[in-house]
Structure formats: structure tokens, C-alpha cells
Amino acid sequence: MSGGEATSAASREEKLRRLEQLRREVAQLEAELAQPDSATRGWPPKDFYLAYYATAGFVLGGIAAGASLLFNVVGAAAKGLHPLQLIRVYLTFPLGEKALQLESGIALAIGCCLYIATGMLLGMVVHVVLAWDEYRSRQTSLARRLGLATVLGIAIWLVNYYALLSWLQPLLFGGNWIVREIPWWVAALTHLVFAWSLALLYPLGKFVPYQLSRETS
Length: 217
Known about the structure:
The chain is an all-alpha fold. It has one domain (50-203). The radius of gyration is 31 Å and the shape is elongated. 73% of the residues lie in helices and 0% in strands. The protein has helices spanning 3-34, 50-78, 85-90, 92-95, 106-137, 142-173, 177-181, 184-201.
């Protein structure tokens, strides 16, 4: 074998070794890319995403509370009462009977804010229950959500008015104005409008996982 042939053979062997090394490096890189990195590990969540649904319920609860307040404003105006009669009665909890004489101003504005804030907290509970029911049953029908929302709305009304406020307000403020001043059917409808609104708004707060794409050069 001449010197040129020997050099060519050695060069070929070197190239083959280099090619095999590159193949191993490519295989290693592909294996690393197939594994989730720190940004994507555990995503999307495999189980019920409680934190997301609680947060979504907090936001949607404020909207639903606004809907129930609007229902009461229209109803009160139709009966010739003060449009914010519900807020007046609502404010008897911290202010007592004098809240029933409020006409306008910062107190009623604060009362509206407190009413909506309460709805946001209750919205977390209702939305999580609706989401959990869908997660377990795998059923997404509006009729099922409205039925469950009806049960939840009535349950919240009964607990708020008769298990808590009926004894707590007299104990703290010497009067039972909330239960006495608001007819039972108005109170029930107010809570039902709130719960039904959450059932209708539920798709806006449904968790839909997104996929993280990788940029390739």
C-alpha cells in the first residue's frame, strides 16, 4: 500500500469515528429534548386544577354579584322602593337600623362594593363545585350546571339567612333587619340569580391547557 493510500484510509477511519460521535451526540440531544424541562414539567396539570378554578370563580363571582344586584335594583324600582334597598338592608349588619334611611353617598357606594366582594368570595365556592362536578362526571351540559347551581343558590340562601344572620345580627346589633326586611322569595331569587349567572358564565372560567411550543432555528 502506497503512502497516499494509507493516508486516505486513515482519513476515512477518522471520518467514520467522527460521524459515529456526531450520531451519539444527536441521539443524546434528541433524548434531552424529549424530556420536559423546568418550564414545562408537570404541565398541563393531570388532576383537578383547584387554584385555577378558585381564582376564576373569584372573578366571575363579582360579575354574578353585579347581575343579582341589577336584578334587585330593577325589582325595587318597579315596586316603588329605593333602587338600592337591598344595599340599605345589607348595610344594617354593620350600621344597624339607621342604614335603612340612607339615600345616597359614599355609604351606599361602599355597600355595593361589599356586596360584590361577598359575591366574589361565594363565587369561588360555587365555581369550584361546578368545575368539580364536571371533572368527576365528565358531563358538560348547561341543564346540569343550572340544576346544580339552583341547589347551591338555595343552600347559600338558607345558610346565610337562617343559619347565620337570623341569630348573629340580633346578637351583635340588636335587630334582625336583613331577615325581616327582605321577603323570603326576594332573598331566594337574589341568590338564585347569582348562582344561575355563575352557571351561565362557567365556560369563561373553564381551564383549557395550552401547549408550549419550541422555537427551532
